[in-house]
Amino acid sequence: MNDAALLRYSRQIMLESIDVEGQERLLAGHALVVGAGGLGSPVALYLAAAGMGRLTLADDDTVELSNLQRQIAHGMADIGRPKAESARDASLALNPDCDIVALPRRLSGEDLRTVVSQVDVVLDCTDRFSSRYAVNEACRHAGVPLVSGAAIRFSGQLAVFDPRDPQAPCYGCLYPPGEGGDDELRCAENGVVAPLVGLIGSFQALEALKLVSGAGSVHQGLSTFDGLTGQWRHFKVPRDPECPVCGA
Predict the structure, then answer these.
(1) Quick check: helix, strand or coil at residue 162?
(2) Which of 21, 29, 84, 89 fits as disulfide partner to 59, beta carbons 3.0 to 4.6 Å?
(3) Which distant-in-sequence residues (6+ apart) come within 8 Å of 169 by Cβ?
(4) E-strand spans in the chain?
(5) Which residues contact 168 (CB under 8 A, 6 or more apart)?
(6) What is the 3-class SS of 57-106, one letter each residue?
(7) Euclidean distance between CA atoms 208 and 213, whole angstroms
(8) Share of the chain above pLDDT 70, in %
(9) Residue range 62-74: average pLDDT?
């Protein structure tokens, strides 16, 4: 790190659990953010600001006026632009030293597996069960940690699935494939309060930062947040030996 980088990241470097070594690991790290909407916006902005060296932002959608209530990486001038490119530009405005690649397409199949295999951590910021299952399977196949977030109405949740831990569950253990419908998670059909996605997305960014820098302990189980009461709940999530994704 040069003097400018030492100054930029000084407030993190002074943290004993990060220090210079942890910040250097961040600068050498590569995160994939799948979805550049409500959750992906704070994830991309905070990871870029915190010094994640490389970001790949994937989203096949374009910015609409109704997105601006909560998707803070985009502005009025971005309406009609690909979300991946808009989020890239907003993140670069915060930290031009971050290497950011925008993928304005839906990752699937071998394309998804290839991209996942090239990164250190994946953040699932999508709003469809089908996308979440695909990302989960790609992460299990590549052995890459997955930070999963969701936000709908006033309710949010976060879980970290790390296939490097043989005892860790996967997303399929928590939500067995075939039990959820895509519309159940979509803000377009159900609504969502604006600050909730910022809260959960920031939680996701924090876990990714910890995973790459080596700071602290990785989140275990499932955390849920009720925005109407301000209450958090935590649940243990055991690995399902019958899981079609990671089971025996």
Answers:
(1) coil
(2) 84
(3) 161, 237, 238, 239, 240, 243, 246
(4) 30-34, 54-58, 99-103, 121-124, 146-152, 155-161, 222-226, 231-235
(5) 161, 162, 239
(6) EECCCECCHHHHHCCCCCCHHHCCCEHHHHHHHHHHHHCCCCEEEEECCC
(7) 8
(8) 96
(9) 97
